[in-house]
Amino acid sequence: MTRGQQVAGQRPSIRAMGLRCLGGAAVAAMLVSIGMGRSAAQSRSMAPAQIRIAFGADPRTTFSVAWQCETDAPGSVVLYGQSPRLGRTAPATRAAYKWETGSVYEAQLTGLRPDREFYYRVGSPNGGWSEVHQSRTAPGAREDFTFTAFGDQGVSPAAKQNVEHIVAEKPAFHLVLGDLSYANGRQAVWDTWFSQNEPLTRIIPFMPAVGNHENEKIGDLKIGYASFLARFSLPAPETRYSFDYSGVRFISFNSDDYQNPDQLKWFDDLLARTKQDDTVRWVVVFMHHPLYSSNVRRLNNTGLIEVMRPRLEAGGVDLVLTGHNHNYERSYALMRDQVTNHSPNRYRRGGGIVYVVSGGGGKSLYQFVPEQPAITAFREATEHYLRVKVDKRGPIVVEAVRTSDRHVMDRFELRR
Ligand SMILES: [Fe+2]
How many angstroms separate the alpha carbon of residue 178 from the centre of ligand 1? Predict the structure, then answer.
């Protein structure tokens, strides 16, 4: 949250449309179990839903939790700890925005120990409590790990199937490569999308980059990133951020605003510091818009290439993960728009950057132009997700996995 707190007593201007927190029977049973005297209708509206977690400033020790209720739930907190007995309490703040569909709460879990499970539940005395969920802090020393990613998800059968696949993968965290809900101003769509994704987001740190569809309009009114900022709790300043996980620096760049000088200075400074940091073995940039593509709707983005390519190359970036085009397209290792290594699937650190378009999260697909560009190693117009395995001493292995049958359609590795 970076917008102001809600003024006490202010009512949301748009009420929840069809927002479901918990089933009525489940809420009634819970109320009986906790001995509440309020009516089921009153209490249902304060029940927590759409729970999502993300890394805090340091993934080894801090997490954020955010959720939504149909109406204000005073006294909202997260109960948490590193055993199922919980034992610690994090107070929640109310994250308000003018077009909200309910009451968003968020809280910071701090003081966690690295490389450990933690357990939490969210709720309030009158609204009731979620189930206890668990996740895991980042390791203190370098360990092998797997993360997953996709972009351009929306709400669809394939989008839901991808949620189930990611949950089954049990990754350390999940990156979203922009264009999340496709609310496009219709704020209730965010609720449907968060509800669709909750089986994933309540247990796997969910780390989105901003896409063009997060820059919203309601009718003719530009509301910008208001929904994104209020509904997520990410490392500051949220529309861009970085975090380290087991020797890999992940940088979320806002490609929807790529010419912003403040962001470019931040990006350049961060990459300069990263080069001096010998705890960082790999640098992964994730953002929405790709530099290179070859589909019927979009070819190479010359403006983005001009601004970003020199920075990515000079900054020692190894891998660039993007979305925006609703398909999969992956380059060879490139330097100055030229192929530096024609291997179909093995590249070396420092020998060029591999660019991945992974926009097959669930929206309708874009087909390719007939001729495959010389810089493209593999492309396929299929719903999919990325599974990326990082070996603490060895390579990064990237696999593109089809949503329909979980077949690995493309696989490549980066070695040091
Ligand atoms: Fe997009």
Answer: 7
